[in-house]
Amino acid sequence: MIKDLEFATPESQGIRSEDILEFMDYIAYRKINLHSFMMARNGKIIAECYVNPFHKDFAHRIYSASKTYVALAVGLMVTEGKVKVTDKVVDYLQDYIDTPLDHWVQEMTIEDCLTMRQPMFPDKKSLGEKDKARCYNLMNHSYATYPNGSIFCYHWAPDLLCVAIKRITGMEFIDYLRPIFDEIGVSKDIWCVKTTEDYCWGTSGIVCTLRDFAKVGEFLMHYGNAGGKQLIDRAYIEKATSSRVFTLSANNYDPIRGNGYGYYTWITPDAVLFRGMGTQHCYCFRDKDFLFVCQADTQSPTEDDSPWMYDAVKHLVYDRIGRKKKEGKAYLQLQEALQNMQPPAFGKPHAAYAQEIDGKTYTVNPGNPMGWKNFRFDFDPNGSEGTLTYENDRGVKKIPFGIGQQKRITFPETHYYDKVLGVPADRELDSTAVCEWLEEKKLLLRVYVIDTCFGSMFATFSFKGNEVALAFRKCAECFLDEYRGDGSGYRAE
User: Domain map of the chain by residue range?
Assistant: First the structure.
């Protein structure tokens, strides 16, 4: 079991080091912002990799992969005879209801929620970024479009189950799972973001290490059995990891979203998956006892969760299992590659034009969406780092950065959430920052927030004589909103 952290060479488990190296080459080619990954076969770890500043003890948000943990908690309740999946959800949420409910909502079952076949859709205002009553709003400010248990629609049903679990067991779902976590070796450090209604946000909130993520994946892959102990009813896990509803709705087939959905799991022709925003992925290839897990931040306006990672693992590693190759040079190369994997780079670290802007203050024209008033770049003489100083609507801020390499920093805003959804952290979030020259007079500043919240901000500064154009793009859920938009300015005399 992965619990025992037993390592083995890929070749001893029928996998070639060359194939894992090719997978890593593909990650580098695609410039994927991967933070860590693990491959295991037959319960033995054959590859484990962390990209600086991440490491084996780093607790990483896994976003929607959290939903599968909620399904496991429901499975434990079923095993203990506390509920049946045919139970009506409203029976456990009466104190959250103060308006008449549509009859389809009244008939909605636990299984309807587990399979994302809930009939309800919230009003636009009821689940906004700063929402303070998610479960209440779902129950009282939703409308039903079709019968419960009919159409797949990826939505916020896990919120309802998280509250129901707490009502039934007297514990948060993550605490209720602790006996299972102990059996499979999940650390005590795993935790979950809460909502302002004071329940753990199983829709998107779990924070855990890569190894803990892998241990839960192995448990699911083995049908709820750990070390010969059947901890969750096997029949429930079989339902949870088989297609209960067809998911393809348009001409956009891919192997993940175009097949089926179980109980907060995605079903492909070869594997069972649970996955979260930004590529927090776990793939369970049962037929070959092969497990892949990764943590990353690939949030993007166009390809936040495309199937490229799954395709790479399947075609470059899984499909090739069993090809014979003796351990040798490739294995040594793989060990070196696993120790030295680097984050993506997009430009050159230095440009002669840096001397022209070093220490110069630029005034930003009023009306820009970021609320910036001015900024200045200062580059250290050693050429390895620098600082962006700017003034926005909240005061004077500084972003230190590495030149051509990531520098660990804290992001100079304190109003983003941390332990509780929508409640300001009142601290600066851990981040990294790097500056690169895309062109002779075009500078790119990339900031990656790597805290409870994960997200990125790409700021491009294009200089033309005494003028400058600013283009800010952010990829983050519920924060960094003040760091998106376009603007212009000029060098102050």
Answer: 2-339, 354-491
